[in-house]
């Protein structure tokens, strides 16, 4: 089955009739993200993400969005181990909101909270947190997830505006990264964009001042600094593929 939104197998709208007796047993497994080598991040995450991941801009034409690189090959996430444990320090909000997600109407004005019905923790056996109470009302758990997902959507909109500004200012340029993998293979990541530091530096003073007031200039430099994390990622993959010495 083709996944929706990278990690979702079958996202459907949540409603009190279809999910009246369903519960969510949350765990600490991120096995669902094992096959993604990048995920989107929103502006509010840049500070935390830049400490560990390379932040890049993905997309084509007039639609680009910041993402973090998680692996050096397609279908490979260097931050999920064989047991499904997340081995990094920071987990992107895109993954933390799973199995919930908003679906938007065609005009982008209406959003519906959905859940991935293929999530292994979703059950009708009362394990974990119920979605609805006996009267068909949303439980506090579902309210909390609705609030978290709503806040994420708000941040998503702000981040979209930031990315559009970078395009309007012609600051983004195609980029690529090459790596030597532990097995001797040389691989290349391409198809993403980074900010041109010289173009950023040479923007008119008024534009730079406006970006600074909006915290957009800080986001630009967090992105540029984060690109230094590409080398540590190679080391992470090397360590993950090195057998432990026999006792």
Q: Could you walk me through the main structural features you see in this protein, from its secondary elements to its overall organization?
A:
- With 247 residues, the chain is of the alpha+beta class.
- The chain is built from 7 helices and 11 strands.
- It has helices at residues 46-49, 93-96, 140-168, 197-201, 205-213, 216-226, 230-240, and strands at residues 11-13, 23-24, 38-40, 55-60, 63-69, 100-104, 111-116, 122-123, 129-130, 172-180, 186-195.
- A 5-stranded antiparallel β-sheet has the order 3-5-4-11-10, sandwiched between helices. Strands 1-7-6 form a 3-stranded antiparallel β-sheet, covered by helices on one side.
- 27% of the residues are buried.
- Residues 242-247 have low confidence and may be disordered.
Task: Describe what is shown at a glance.
This protein has 7 helices and 11 strands.
Determine Rg (CA atoms, Å): 20 Å
Per DSSP, the total helix count is 7
**Poorly predicted regions:** 242-247
Span between N and C termini? 42 Å
Helix content: 25-40%
Biggest sheet, spatial arrangement of strands: 3-5-4-11-10
Q: Secondary-structure element sequence?
A: EEEHEEHEEEEHEEHHHH
Question: Proportion of β residues?
Answer: 15-25%
């Amino acid at each position: 089955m083709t996944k929706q939104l990278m990690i979702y197998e079958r996202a459907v709208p949540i409603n009190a009739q279809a999910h009246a007796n369903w519960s969510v047993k949350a765990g600490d497994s991120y096995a669902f993200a094992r096959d993604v080598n990048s995920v989107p991040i929103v502006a509010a995450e840049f500070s935390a993400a830049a400490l560990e991941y390379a932040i890049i801009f993905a997309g084509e034409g007039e639609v680009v969005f910041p993402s973090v690189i998680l692996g050096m090959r397609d279908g490979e996430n260097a931050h999920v181990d064989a047991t499904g444990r997340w081995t990094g320090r920071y987990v992107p909000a895109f993954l933390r909101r799973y199995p919930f997600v908003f679906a938007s109407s065609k005009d982008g004005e209406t959003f519906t909270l959905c859940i991935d019905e293929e999530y292994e923790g979703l059950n009708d056996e009362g394990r974990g947190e119920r979605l609805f109470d006996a009267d068909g009302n949303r439980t506090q758990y579902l309210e909390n997830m609705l609030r978290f997902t709503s806040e994420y959507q708000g941040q998503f909109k702000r981040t979209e505006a930031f990315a559009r500004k970078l395009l309007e200012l012609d600051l983004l340029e195609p980029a690529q990264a090459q790596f030597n993998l532990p097995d001797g293979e040389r691989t290349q990541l391409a198809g993403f964009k980074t900010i041109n530091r010289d173009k950023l530096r040479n923007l008119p003073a008024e534009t730079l001042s406006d970006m600074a007031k909006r915290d957009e200039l800080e986001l630009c430099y967090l992105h540029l600094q984060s690109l230094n994390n590409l080398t540590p990622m190679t080391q992470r993959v090397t360590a993950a593929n090195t057998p432990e010495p026999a006792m």
